[in-house]
Amino acid sequence: MTIQHHPDDDLLLAHAAGRLAGGPAVLIASHVELCAHCQRRTTELETIGGALLEELSPEALAPEALARTLAAIDAAPVADAVVSKRARQAPRRRPALPDGVAWPRALQHCSATPWRWLGPGMRWSRVTLPQDAAANVFLLRIGAGKQLPEHTHSDCELTQVLCGTFHDGRALFGPGDFDEADRSFHHQPTVQPGGDCICLASVSGRVLFKGVIARTLGALVGM
């Protein structure tokens, strides 16, 4: 199945420039590593950015700029670097994926909880990013024919499909597809026949579910 849905240029450019927070950065990286179109587009944006930098007039650094930079390096806590190295080297806890479904390389230093019950035919797993402990990233595994409750978003939700397909009333999303939803969208993703749909998601703000039970479950999950 051909990838049909991609991040927009603003997201790709922000990712290339290193301006994204940990959660969105992992989602974009997970998509780009699978998508030849976005790999080419990212290269084009990086080339344009480099050309624009070359056209800028040189600016003289303050006389003490180098001294301040070296002092900041010397003052950096060594303990944090040691903990970070240990975190990268620690064994990764990850829930099982279906045969033939690979973990995104962007998650190679991340861990995830075992699958947890969310509802009939629905499970979820919390993903921990060592570089951004506050990131709200999780996996959703929804069975064929099941649907999430109708909802919108207080801010933004990024979704990368790892396997399976779903339709949310706007479009059909399959393996490799990327979706960005904000408060202007009210949707109800429904998994299509053929097997479970597993998605990686990053949420900024809250998922605003319709219905008391759905809101309660969402709050327990941290959506």
Write a structural description.
- The protein has 223 residues and is an alpha+beta fold.
- The chain has helices at residues 9-16, 22-32, 36-55, 65-75, 78-89, 212-221; strands at 111-112, 116-119, 122-129, 132-142, 151-153, 156-163, 166-167, 172-173, 178-182, 190-191, 197-204, 207-209.
- The protein has a domain at 106-221: Jelly Rolls (Sandwich), CATH 2.60.120.
- The strands form 3 sheets. Strands 1, 2, 3, 4, 6, 9 and 11 form a 7-stranded antiparallel beta sheet that branches.
- α1 crosses α3 (36-55).
- The chain is globular, with a radius of gyration of 20 Å.
- The protein starts with 8 loop residues before the first helix and ends with a helix.
- The relative contact order is 0.17.
- InterPro entries: Anti-sigma_ChrR, Anti_sigma_zinc_sf, ChrR-like_cupin_dom, RmlC-like_jellyroll, RmlC_Cupin_sf.
- Residues 106-200 form the ChrR-like cupin domain.
- This is Transcriptional regulator.
- It comes from Variovorax guangxiensis.
Strand and helix map with partners:
Blueprint: H1 9-16, H2 22-32, H3 36-55, H4 65-75, H5 78-89, E1 111-112, E2 116-119, E3 122-129, E4 132-142, E5 151-153, E6 156-163, E7 166-167, E8 172-173, E9 178-182, E10 190-191, E11 197-204, E12 207-209, H6 212-221
Helix pairs in contact: 1-3
